[in-house]
Amino acid sequence: MGKDSEFVPVVDLSAARNGSGGRRGRTSVAREIGRACESSGFFTVVGHGIPAELTGRMDAVTREFFRLPAPRKEKVLCGPGKGGLRYAEGSVARGAGGDAPPDLCEIYTANVLGDLAPERRARCGGADAPWTRANDWPEEPAGFRDVWTAYMRAMGGLGGDLMRLFALALGLDEEFFDDKVDRHVSTLVANHYFPPSGPPLPGQMRMGAHSDWGSLTILLRDAVGGLQVRRDGEWHDVPHVPGGFVINIGDLMAFWTNGHWVSTVHRVRNPAEGTTDSRLSLPFFFLPNHDTRIEPLPRFRKSGDRDRVTGTTPGEWFRAKMAATYS
Question: Can you give the residue ranges of the Fe2OG dioxygenase domain (predicted)?
């Protein structure tokens, strides 16, 4: 595990999250995070304060949903203007400029805005923005909606605090990002990867090579392997840390830092031939406010050089990426 664990380091948030370390503790943790964001864009957090009881219930109720017979799951099949269950129609690799068959997974999604009234959601980017879709909650298993809602609330709090630590790591006021994420349009996704009924098509993966599109991702994963990051043209496994969340920054955070922090390409490889293990991952995509203008911070602009990105918003960026992925 050595080199892989160095590339995806473990960061203990305890001193920053429980108040025991004070300002010095938060600054120290922020420095660790900053180093990881500069080198790999990936790190694993422990000491995050999210109760194991909540993550356990989240894992259990989501697995129970995916074990339902298809007709019962498909009562919440996603459609125009609403989230829910869908089967991979394309590969996220297409959004990164690649070409690949559909990913080998089924997906359930819910949005932090998804239970608001339609007129409230419509103010956040229009019908083509994925985060404005209404949530379609399954009636079974019992308690699914309550657990997912509680989990989204906890992830929103952790995501907001990570953005404050990002600000410290970048030498900014800790509150710099607060007004840019105070109406965040985050999405919670469950990816259920299952063995294919036959040999995968050429180039077909559980999830193709891609970078995440938002500001940061908080991933709850099981112990089944498969998540890999690309480094120097080679693929490296992301070590599993019991009780930890894998954090990676996305494209929007890389834009803010003009590429100083890296949005690293990653994938979910197929299991070894003959292996029948399914795999569950629960990424929470923490996204800024839909209309936040994202452009390189002044400290990362070089005199005489053109910025890598002149500016975008989550709405503009996601529209372009979704068109590339599903075209």
Answer: 183-288
pLDDT for 32-85, tens place per residue? 999 999 999 999 999 999 999 999 999 999 999 999 999 999 999 999 999 999
What radius of gyration, in Å, describes the C-alpha atoms of the chain? 19
Strands (E) across the chain are located at 10-12, 42-46, 84-87, 105-111, 187-193, 207-210, 216-221, 227-231, 234-237, 245-249, 266-268, 279-286
What phi and psi, each to the nearest 5 degrees, are found at residue 11?
-115, 125
pTM comes to: 0.92
Half-sphere exposure of 238 (CA within 13 A, CB side): 32
Q: What does residue 297 show for φ and ψ, rounded to 5 degrees?
A: -65, 150
**C-alpha distances out from residue 77 to 84, 85, 221, 288, 301, Å:** 5, 5, 24, 27, 45
Pick the CATH number of 2-326 from 3.90.180.10, 2.60.120.330, 2.40.50.140, 2.30.30.100: 2.60.120.330
- Distance, CA of 174 to CA of 260 (rounded, Å): 19
How far apart, in Å, are the Cα atoms of 31 and each of 146, 186, 282?
36, 25, 27
